[in-house]
Write a structure and sequence with these properties.
Helix 3 packs across helix 8 and helix 3 packs antiparallel against helix 9. The protein is globular and about 55 Å long. The chain has 273 residues and is mainly α. The protein has twelve helices and no strands. 37% of the residues are buried.
Length: 273
Amino acid sequence: MAERSTLVEGLRAYRLIAGMWVRSGMTYRTSFVFTVVGNLLMTGLDFVSILLMFSQVDSLGGWSLPEIALLYGLSATAFGVADMLLGSMDVLGSRMRDGSFDVLLVRPAPVLAQVGADRFAVRRLGRVTQGALVLGWALVSVDVDWSVPKVLLVPVMLVSGAAIFSAVFVAGAAFQIFAQDAAEVQNAFTYGGTTLLQYPPTVFGKDLVRGVTFMLPLAFVNWVPAAYVLDRPYPIGLPGWAAFASPLVAVGCCLLAGLAWRTGLRSYRSTGS
């Protein structure tokens, strides 16, 4: 019951803090619209680079443009949701340096909810929108013999992918507590991870593919389940049921991230500033 009460309290605190930042951001509507559109266009440059690449080649690692667009759309959309919800976690190090993190510790609200909702930016919807547009085009254009399991796997990938990326954000924030910052290390796994997943696993070495499958299981965001949807063998020969393991992987990642966060909070020592 105590765990459930803490969860409800955390969600309520997150909603209130995020709502405050949304109201603040919507004060100047024109500026807000331009910011969202600008964010959409900036993030869209990633896919433009892929389009430019395919203007010179017919396939990349044996994958066609619609197939890579599917990977891109799944990764960008899932990451966009996680970034919008918990993207502020990467500034935890600066909060510890200036002493403002101590303020969060004495407030009557879960610290994770406060850090996650801090400076909640609706402008990040631009990244989600851009990824969803690419995903929509890919689903229409890709050559797939759609079945019920394949259709259902698409929303499962998006939800599980967002949960996996969210877990990486939280685990990265916990690491910052131990390392007293190291935001760049966290960004390497979050922003770097989503960029990695936008390309097919066949263009990377098998050691790297094993690493993001078994050590930091980002591959379950899209690589593994998308291989099933596209009827492609996974490079390191996983069993067929692994394509449906994304929800279990997401739950495991969230539990481990929560444990890391609690351990980090217990070990935190104030800067005294």
